[in-house]
Amino acid sequence: MFTGIITHLGKVDSITKSCYTFSADRSFFQKLGQGGSVAVNGVCLTVNARPKTYLFSIEVMPETVKKTTIGTLKLGDYVNLELPLSADALFEGHMVQGHVDGTGMIKKIQSEGNSHIFTIKVKSDLSYYLIDKGSIAVNGISLTIIKAGQSSFTVGVIPYTWKTTMLQYSKTGDPVNIEVDILAKYVEKFIAPHRRKLYEAQ
């Protein structure tokens, strides 16, 4: 499990078919183990190899390419990196599994005081789970929803998050990975049968 608190940036070093190699700084690289988990732009992946110092590789299957923005990455692109939460670590952000639910598109980026306001377009099957002041992971970043709409939502990015994540390099039209709050999905799963019974009884 992850928390959505991004502390490191990586960079796409090479792409060979389904294999992606990223560069990372020393402090992050030293904590990576072959076969271990790592979140890349919010996607939980397995470290396949560490071919050289400060480089690590992952392999992606077709489902990952279909569901996420991994397939749109290009050489030199910056990515958010996060290691799994350890049992004795301080829990911050919110529960992020790294199981991306779908993608969205950056519709607008506005400066507001010391922050940046992002409007992100999503499909209705994702917006269904969004609420004002609720949590959401955008490219693996734990953010608070300012306003949830039927086809889009807005989030605010503080200066620290702007400087330490790939959002500083993003632009209008860019795709982003979206993971909705796992608690919302569990609640939906639990109440769905009861809601159907109530509907049938009417």
Automatic annotation (TrEMBL):
EC top class, as a word: transferase
Electron transport recorded as keyword: no
InterPro entries named among the record's database cross-references: ATP_synth_asu-like_sf, Lumazine-bd, Lumazine-bd_dom, Riboflavin_synthase-like_b-brl
Keywords: Repeat, Riboflavin biosynthesis, Transferase
Name of this chain's protein: Riboflavin synthase
The keyword Nuclease is annotated on this UniProt entry: no
BP-aspect Gene Ontology terms: riboflavin biosynthetic process
EC code: 2.5.1.9
Stretches forming Lumazine-binding repeats: 1-94, 95-191
GO terms for MF: riboflavin synthase activity
Annotated ranges, domain Lumazine-binding: 1-94, 95-191
Species, as recorded: Candidatus Gottesmanbacteria bacterium RIFCSPHIGHO2_02_FULL_39_11
Protein's pathway: Cofactor biosynthesis; riboflavin biosynthesis; riboflavin from 2-hydroxy-3-oxobutyl phosphate and 5-amino-6-(D-ribitylamino)uracil: step 2/2
